[in-house]
Amino acid sequence: xxxxxxxxxxxxxxGKQFNAVRxxxxxxxxxxPGELHAVMGENGAGKSTLMKILSGVxxxxxxxxxxxxxxxxxxxxxxxxDAGIGIIHQELNLVEQLSVAANIFLGRExxxxxxxxxxxxxxxxxxxLLAQLESNISPRALVxxxxxxxxxxxxxxxxxxxEAEILIMDEPxxxxxxxxxxxxxxxxxxxxxxxxTILYISHKMDEVFRLAERITVLRDGQFVQTVNRAxxxxxxxxxLMVGRDIEPARRRQSNQASSVVLETxxxxxxxxxxxxxxxxxxxxxxLNQGEILGFAGLMGAGRTELLECLFGASSVQPxxxxxxxxxxxxxxxxxxxxKAGIAMVTEDRKRLGLFAQMTVRENTTLCSLQxxxxxxxxxxxxxxxxxxxxxxxxxxxxxxxxxxxxxxxxGNQQKCIIGRCMLTRPSILLLDDPTRGVDIGAKAELYQLxxxxxxxxxxxxxxxxxxxxxxxxSDRILVLCEGVxxxxxxxxxxxxxxxxxxxxxxxxxx
Length: 510
Ligand SMILES: Nc1ncnc2c1ncn2[C@@H]1O[C@H](COP(=O)(O)OP(=O)(O)OP(=O)(O)O)[C@@H](O)[C@H]1O
Ligand SMILES: [Mg+2]
Known about the structure:
Rossmann fold, 22 strands, six-stranded mixed beta sheet, alpha/beta
């Protein structure tokens, strides 16, 4: 008999082994109808693997799944979709060469009689779905032309289009900005009013505490506990996740009188064909040795564009001046910026950062092969030693340096990119949302690492999609709005309120 208290999903003794890695081990818990159930755990805890089992990506596993009391085993995502389970994947699962609409309806294309694709109908429906997210991405745009945040919106639209009764969201907001997150919350509210059950994975505590009714914590592939949100605190959940209390990063004295290592004067970046005409306008600032400088701003404010300019990675040549270590520079390629001692961790690791075909070692040493060579010959031993050092200092969870990078959990892939940057021993480090998808323990480690680097004299520019994080790490914060600097705050002056005010201050009124 089905009663209100019959779980919609029962997970019983689920285990999964990847070669040498035990990703899941005897996990059991229930998900109740209509609840928003968060799943939390450190990077590599097994969250995504479990979700892939629930959504039919993996059909080889131990244990049993019950859907409304009936045993099920899905052999494809299609079977799971037919049973009413949809998923928004953490590592976005879109076909870059296809349009937005084609991706949303992939495998479920609307056809006219005689099997001809009804392009118009699909475009209209795609536009409707995107409108729910208040996004004006064109259904005809190629996914490869979209920024990662927009790709995430397309992935969300695609999942919503399934009208699933159970929706799995694996870090849906990791690439979204504050305003997009707010719109996603609106969509979640509407789905929940319709009785949709949501399994929600996020490393952002405030998000989980705002949305979830119950929270299940996994650690090292094992079930730890399911708790009611009302009985939990962020601290208690963090403790369940890592098995210990997390120390806040120790702040060093900010170094006031140090020398300027990087300076821009009137930096502008044109935006051909756009009504605004510029992506960045007249950006002038100084970065000191040993300083951690945060850049805040909403989506489209120009944070990523600015970092790309400094790193020689923008598609259009910027105007204005860039002075690095007292020398006027004009980088036309990241290799030139790297020669000048600059390293960058990009926000879009899948497209710009990682080489999926390569191993952890190859991905980590990619930019420092010279340092791993003796007399111009690449030394495998030195490469392994360098990789090992990063694996240990960043606590990268993998089966070893020779593991394929794609076998690592999302957060651990991100740590590899940070490791790659560290190996180039930069004097200026650009971090574009470096903790995206990184767990709470690893975040604390990363903050500690930033503090340590700054103490050693490295100058750091950082952006973050989480304002509290920026307030934690930065010595000084500059705010961008529509490509213009609209605010500057010292660590003592900076508050969320002040930054948000500056971030929404239209530049023409400044
Ligand atoms: N396809 C695969 N091949 C080999 N190992 C894998 C594969 N997928 C996952 N793993 C391993 O299984 C473990 C669990 O990974 P999973 O992606 O489920 O973690 P997660 O909890 O989602 O982490 P994150 O918060 O970083 O996304 C990790 O140790 C990972 O390296
Ligand atoms: Mg994951």
